[in-house]
Specification:
single chain, 142 residues, mainly alpha, 6 helices, 84% helix
């Protein structure tokens, strides 16, 4: 019985410690599912409001009016200079798509593998800000 206990107890302690600290695979899987659902929710809300172009235009005018009343800086001058330059608009869109998403994915992968203790806060921040943004977007489409 003594040898049996000496063999079993270290394995039991190892099992308990593994249960206390989730495995990397489980953590990565959980984060992929969580961020995938977040992206799906974001895409659904954006599609749901995509046909309200007229409302978005009216809201955009209201935002610009609000910015002017508050004395906030405006990007109207810059937009007027480039909005008719088709290639520049395309470059800006490609840059946003090619930089924003890959940078976010690289950051999340780095955090998942190098700074796992940060992931709960990062996940909370992304879910919170995306949810708040989507609620505002539903109420006030731009």
């Amino acid at each position: 019985m003594g040898q049996f206990m000496q063999a079993v107890i270290p394995k039991f302690h190892k099992l308990v410690s593994l249960c206390k600290q989730p495995s990397l695979r489980l953590s990565v899987f959980f984060n992929i599912v969580t961020f995938g659902l977040l992206w799906l929710g974001y895409s659904t809300v954006r599609r749901f409001t995509s046909d309200s172009w007229q409302i978005a235009q009216e809201n955009a005018v209201r935002v610009v009016d609000f910015q002017e009343r508050m004395g906030l800086p405006s990007e109207v001058v810059l937009q007027k200079q480039i909005i008719d330059v088709d290639w520049m608009v395309r470059v800006a869109n490609v840059f946003y798509f090619a930089m924003h998403f890959p940078t976010m994915i690289i950051f999340l992968l780095w955090a998942m593998f190098q700074k796992r203790e940060w992931m709960a806060r990062i996940r909370f921040a992304l879910i919170s800000t995306t949810t708040i943004g989507l609620i505002i977007h539903l109420a006030f489409p731009l």
